[in-house]
Amino acid sequence: MRKIAVLTGAGMSVESGLSTFRGGGGLWDEYPVEKVATPEGYAADPSLVLSFYNKRRRELLLVEPNEGHRLVAQLEKDNNVVVITQNVDDLHERAGSTNVIHLHGELMKVCSSRNPNDSRYIKRLSPEAPEITLGDLADDGSQLRPFIVWFGEAVPLMEDAIKAVSDIDVFIIIGTSLNVYPAAGLLNYIPYGVPVYLIDPNNVPVNGVCNLTHIRSGASDGMRKIINDCL
Ligand code: APR
Q1: How far, in Å, from the CA of 86 to the mean position of ligand 1?
Q2: pTM
Q3: Tell me: the pLDDT tens digits for 163-217?
Q4: Per the CB 3.0–4.6 Å rule, which of 31, 111, 128, 165 could disulfide with 147?
Q5: Which domains does the chain have, with CATH numbers?
Q6: 3-state per-residue secondary structure call for the chain
């Protein structure tokens, strides 16, 4: 079986109705990133940060995976697939993908403010009670916080992602502006000569990646094209 790695970003979930971060109407236009997605922002105004992610969770519960997510999941029928996503939504899993590395955390999970990556204190919120507020405590007694990797924090799953990419046969990139490191650095670990398919309606910085085919379309059309014409 071929080994396929799929690297996804916010563009993957646009057709489900979720916003991207950058570009016109992106989330970071509406909410200053330093206030809602950094440890400093959380220290300065934890309530604002908790309510930002409460809102994101409520939005997520209203949307469904799109055809693109389903086609990525379908790849598992004939291939050994790892999805490496920068997205904190759970749409890949809801579409049926079984091997998903969430580099930037998971929106439906919360963790300890003192030990964010200690699995003993990570828990999944239920769709019936998707919010946390000041005073909700983790089992270590600290304030519960979103299980999200903020800017300036370590990316603990990066090693797993690098390992997964290092011996693949096909690499697919969908809907990421490749602005954020270390995630964007994964491109440096693609084995030489491996076919790389990029699905994005816009230009993204992929200079230096060899054997690249850019499919200028949305996630669903792009995945359909790859499955029909390229794999
Ligand atoms: N299908 C595919 N791609 C699309 C679509 C679509 N329908 N619509 C837009 N795009 C593309 C845009 O052209 C852009 O290249 O999706 C990309 C989205 O880029 P960003 O908003 O920068 O999102 P992403 O790359 O995932 O951001 C990385 O930044 O703020 C952080 O932690 C956050 O994980 C996020 C990280």
Answers
A1: 9
A2: 0.97
A3: 999 999 999 999 999 999 999 999 999 999 999 999 999 999 998 899 999 999 9
A4: 111
A5: 1-18+66-104+154-231 (3.40.50.1220), 19-62+108-148 (3.30.1600.10)
A6: CEEEEEEECHHHHHHHCCCCCCCCCCHHHHCCHHHHCCHHHHHHCHHHHHHHHHHHHHHHHCCCCCHHHHHHHHHHHCEEEEEEECCCCCHHHHHCCCCEEECCEEEEEEEECCCCCCHHHCEECECCECCCCCCCECCCCCEEEEEECCCCCCCCCHHHHHHHHHCCCEEEEECCCCCCCCHHHHHHHCCCCCCEEEECCCCCCCCCCCCEEEECCCHHHHHHHHHHHHC
